[in-house]
Specification:
single chain
Amino acid sequence: MSDIDELLCQEKIAKEELDHAHHFQYLFWKERAKMLWFKDGDQNTVFFHVVVKRRNNSSGTHRLWITLQENNNLVTEFSDRK
């Protein structure tokens, strides 16, 4: 085997080892992210549910009718439908 062939073989082995190391690094960070998600959860969940609950409690349909009667008196009617 010539020196060039030996260097190419070493380069191939080094690339395979680097790919292997990158794969294990990817798996490590993937698992760590999963564990942090299980531990901490979504930090916005409480805020989200408070906002949605407040919006649902106050989002009824509100209507106001104003009518002018014949004797020029204003009559207002208010309906609060949910």
